[in-house]
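Protocol step 6 of 9: fold each sequence in the batch and record its structure tokens directly after the sequence line. For illustration, a two-sequence batch is reproduced in full.

Sequence one:
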Amino acid sequence: MTDADHGRPLPQTAEQWRLLQTQKLLELFSGAHGRPARTVEELEAWLSSPAGEAATAYDRTPDGKVIP
């Protein structure tokens, strides 16, 4: 199944959506640092920093349909 408006696959569940979003954030961190985040706290600190906010600003997923 795909999202007709955006042409991308739709996650099947809210849990799958959360996992996909987490994977995107981990990939952004790895791209910026050349290594995976060592802890959740390290990832959270980076995401709330100016560099993390800038990195995620261009990778925002547009609001779409709510999938239960």
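Sequence two, same batch, same settings:
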Amino acid sequence: MVIIITITSVGCAKVISTEHKTVQVKIIDLYYKPEEVVKRVTNINGKKKTNYTTKRAEYKVTVEYNGIQYKFKDRKYYYKAENKEGQNINGMLEIKTYDDKTSKEEIIDIFVE
């Protein structure tokens, strides 16, 4: 008895080229929430215990290119875009072309000259 197993990959397009371009993106939103220390008091068997927890600061930048919004959630992006809300800055557009002749565009970085 002979069993033959065939495995094929159907429906998975492969990237055949990647191109990068510098384009203008508009900063449409900046969000910053500072680091926060939270105090929590617990009472176990009549003994109070105080715990402190630090919540990390949050940084968010939303940019728009060709009507599509892209979000960056990192301090380095926030400081690049700080005080520039509503303005255009440079962004790095990545264009991936697939073997099925489709392509995908995405803003992968922002920078200020």
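Proceed to step 7 once all outputs are recorded. Observation for sequence two: Residues 15-111 form one domain.
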